[in-house]
Amino acid sequence: MRIFKHPLHAMLVHFPVASWSLATACDGLSLAGFTQAWSYAWLLLAVGLLSAVPAMIAGSIDLAKLDEAAERDGNRHMILMGSAWTVYLCALLARLDDMTPVLEPQLLSIALSVVGFGVMMVGGWYGGQLVYHHGAGVKRGD
């Protein structure tokens, strides 16, 4: 799927990746004693989850167009990134107590954030494989 002759999925993935990476960094800072970073992490998790939805839709459309050689890496990328989304959702939900944000850092949510980051990195590696090894989304001949 393209917009202005550029692959839409590639344009959209930067927002959730940056948001989740910064959320995990803020969680690390909150563990190090900078407790104000905890509230920023909550916001960044939410932004990452919301901004990932259009990226996942565009990626699903692109996945259907992959050739057979790239299909395996595409499926792995999709499963891992969907798993990262789910883990980050759990990290966000673990920060709530009766639908009210918990004000103090919680170890479970931080652990989920770190796991989500790891899963996202592996999923991102497969996304890189799709582009750099299989040429997915690369327009040739221009």
What does this structure look like?
The protein has five helices and four strands. Helix 2 runs antiparallel to helix 5 (107-133). The protein starts with a strand and ends in a 9-residue tail after the last helix. 73% of the residues lie in helices and 6% in strands. The longest helix is centred in the middle third of the chain and has 27 residues, at 37-63. It is elongated. It is mainly alpha-helical. The protein has helices at residues 8-12, 14-31, 37-63, 68-93, 107-133; strands at 2-3, 6-7, 96-97, 100-101. It has one domain (8-133). The strands form two sheets. Strands 1-2 form a two-stranded antiparallel sheet. A two-stranded antiparallel sheet has the order 3-4.
Topology at a glance:
Blueprint: E1 2-3, E2 6-7, H1 8-12, H2 14-31, H3 37-63, H4 68-93, E3 96-97, E4 100-101, H5 107-133
Antiparallel strand pairs: 1-2, 3-4
Helix pairs in contact: 2-3, 2-5, 3-4, 4-5
Largest beta-sheet details = 2 strands, antiparallel
Distance between the termini: 17 Å
| Largest sheet: spatial strand order | 1-2
Overall geometry comes to elongated
Which residues sit in consecutive blocks of at least 5 with pLDDT less than 50?
A: none
The topology string of helices and strands comes to EEHHHHEEH
Share of β-strand residues: 5-15%
**Structural class estimated from helices and strands:** mainly alpha
Task: Count the domains.
Answer: 1
Care to count the β-strands? Answer: 4
Which radius of gyration do the C-alpha atoms yield? 17 Å
The tally of helices reads: 5
Helix content: over 70%
- The pLDDT mean sits at 91
